[in-house]
Amino acid sequence: MGHTGTTTVKRGLAQMLKGGVIMDVVTPEQASVAQEAGAVAVMALERIPADIRADGGVARMSDLGLVQRIMDAVTIPVMAKARIGHLAEAQCLEALGVDYIDESEVLTPADDKYHIDKHKFSVPFVCGARDIGEALRRISEGAAMIRSKGEAGSGNIVEAVRHMRAIRGAIAELHALPEEELVARARDIGASLDLVRDVARDASLPVVLFCAGGVSTPADAALMMQLGAEGIFVGSGIFKAAAIYRNGKPEYDDNGFPKVDPEIALRYARAIVAATTHFEDPKAVVEASKSLGGAKPMYGIDVRQLDESQLLSTRGN
Amino acid sequence: MSEPAIGVLALQGDVDEHVRALERSGARAFPVKTRASLAASDALVVPGGESTTVIRLLDRFELGDPIVERVRGGMPFWGTCMGMIVAARDVAGMDQKTLGLLDISVRRNAFGRQIASEEVELHIEALGTPAFPAVFIRAPWIESAGPGVEILASHRGHGVFVRQGRVLGTSFHPELTADDRVHRYFVGMVNAARSG
């Protein structure tokens, strides 16, 4: 009697998340903190990006039992990350019933050539992009939501700014181009002409565009919303700021997860939500920043000092 | 009569979609994030979004009580999906705070998680033919309703479109379609309230 898994319902859930903050979580306890703070969804992953960056090795889909416990712990939508091209991980997440899958460059790619054919799934997908061509290629593959890639786990907003400006700038440019130039432009950016025409006509992507990759303060969130993000993903920015250290080294709990101070995490998460809601009101961002009570943002790294092999944003294209 | 000024609560959710549909339907529409913009509204729409989140933000930004006060004073109100949950008397099986503007108990994610989200041709007597293209996304249904509540449409045996006086609730998202009949119905309610 009804039609499930349609483009409208897949893109529609992302539309319901607009203006909100989606928070990376590793454990059910972190998911509860995120929900309490006002997150619109949580993203389940094996390790937060800053830890993936520090630890190295292969980063995979989360333990499925843990994803289930996160789903049981909260009433907001639960997203989970699958490796680029790893259609079996995505099938598992769909069978488990997660609400959105992030085919993510933050995990180690499983396929160095192809992304997942996302049209084959009923569950919607979000994918990262650095520019308009990459965004439209992911949409052609069936992505129902796009996020900037930024440079995950860096604590540095510069790459997210670069990607958001590139995407928004290209949309404005396509909208201004004469019709006869669109074919050549579609060829140059490696995107379908139909999608390029849609973007040129509507002056927007056909799906919701969020920011991800490097948001670590309330002002970062307000900046990205002003640059045209429709919402914010925070990866390491919250739980890395709340990580507990001893002698400069992170502490781990009995299950091997980094220990976090839930009070600081809650305060941090709330402040980023408030700055996202009231991004155009500097007084509200001041209030949000003051509410951190001196809690320090995560350590940030200068992306220019990273080797090519340490960059996450160049994975997938 | 001039166009009614309809605010769309903009703490989070699909605000732009409602603003555009209301403007196509003969209203002037704008986002509401503050008490000042609420005061400038003849009516309020609470869009689709996450009810857990918006209930908390209404509290934090002190907008819940002013909304309740305005609706008790006769301001027309329409909640879609999240907005209907926020407006309900209570949420079945959950200890979730609500504004209590509609005498209904709602069940959240009643049809299932995102995989069960669906598009349905819904028969709505008040809108006539053809059937309405209803988009349900992690949608709630109406578990029970008080005697003053009129059920305008049902799906899978449960109410999904209700009216109680000047308060409207839909489980589905008319703002995600090009069919503006529910928006025009609401603008009609707002105009009637202004002239009455």
> What percent of the residues of chain A sit in helical stretches (DSSP H or I)?
40-55%
CATH architecture descriptor text of chain B: 3-Layer(aba) Sandwich
Q: What distance separates the N and C termini of chain A?
A: 39 Å
Question: What percent of residues of chain B are in strands?
Answer: 25-35%
Radius of gyration of chain B: 15 Å
CATH class of chain B: Alpha Beta
Overall mean pLDDT score of chain A? 95
Our Rg estimate of chain A from Cα atoms comes to 19 Å
Oligomer: heterodimer
Derived from helix and strand composition plus strand pairing, the structural class of chain A reads alpha/beta
The greatest inter-chain interface is formed by:
A-B, 39 and 37 residues
Unreliable runs of chain A: none
Question: Helix amount of chain B, in percent?
Answer: 25-40%
Major sheet characteristics of chain A: 8 strands, parallel
Low-confidence stretches of chain B: none
Total helical segments of chain A: 13
Order of helices and strands of chain B: EHEHEHHEHEEEEEEEEH
Largest sheet of chain B: 7 strands, mixed
Gap between N and C termini of chain B: 12 Å
Strand adjacency order, main sheet of chain B: 2-1-3-4-12-11-10
Summarize the SSE layout with pairings.
The complex is a heterodimer of chains A (317) and B (196).
Chain A: E1 2-4, H1 7-16, E2 21-25, H2 28-37, E3 41-44, H3 49-55, H4 64-73, E4 78-83, H5 87-96, E5 100-104, E6 125-129, H6 132-140, E7 145-148, H7 158-176, H8 182-189, H9 193-202, E8 208-210, H10 218-226, E9 232-234, H11 236-239, E10 245-246, E11 249-250, H12 262-277, H13 282-290
Parallel strand pairs in A: 2-3, 2-9, 3-4, 4-5, 5-6, 6-7, 7-8
Antiparallel strand pairs in A: 10-11
Chain B: E1 5-9, H1 15-24, E2 28-32, H2 35-39, E3 43-46, H3 51-60, H4 64-72, E4 77-80, H5 82-87, E5 90-91, E6 104-107, E7 118-122, E8 132-136, E9 141-145, E10 150-155, E11 158-164, E12 167-170, H6 181-195
Parallel strand pairs in B: 1-2, 1-3, 3-4, 4-12, 5-6
Antiparallel strand pairs in B: 6-9, 7-8, 10-11, 11-12
